[in-house]
Design a protein that fits this description.
Helix content: under 10%
Strand order of the largest sheet: 2-1-6
Bound molecules: zinc ion
Largest sheet: 3 strands, antiparallel
Distance between the termini: 5 Å
Strand content: 25-35%
Order of helices and strands: EEEEEE
Length: 112
């Protein structure tokens, strides 16, 4: 189960429908989290369990997750838990458009 977040920055940048977590229909080994791509200046949802993290939009490598997928992971657990995504709602993050730490995420619905 996962959910979606929207990101918004005071500069006017907005990212909608970024998926977080794992979907029921997804193959194992996928855990999506919002990431920043500094190549195409977008916040994107990428599979942070992949060996090489790539931007789904411009295919650039070196995309950085906004949250640590290993945070809150219980010992022996293969998947990041929901706890890993909680810091998303706590503070401002680097905006891919203006590079200020003023990107805020908000809950935008569930998906499965
Ligand atoms: Zn990109
Ligand atoms: Zn901004």
């Amino acid at each position: 189960m996962g959910f979606m977040v929207s990101g918004r920055c005071s500069c006017g940048y907005a990212a909608k429908g970024l998926m977080v977590g794992v979907g029921m229909r997804d193959p194992r080994g996928t855990w999506l989290a919002p990431c920043i791509c500094r190549k195409c200046h977008q916040a994107v949802s990428a599979n942070v369990q992949a060996k090489t993290l790539k931007c789904p939009k411009c295919k650039a490598k070196g995309v950085e997750p906004y949250v640590d997928p290993d945070a809150g992971k219980e010992e022996g657990e293969e998947y990041p838990s929901c706890a890993a995504s909680e810091p998303l709602f706590d503070s401002g993050f680097e905006c891919p458009a203006c590079a200020k730490k003023s990107l805020k995420f908000e809950f935008a619905g569930m998906w499965d």
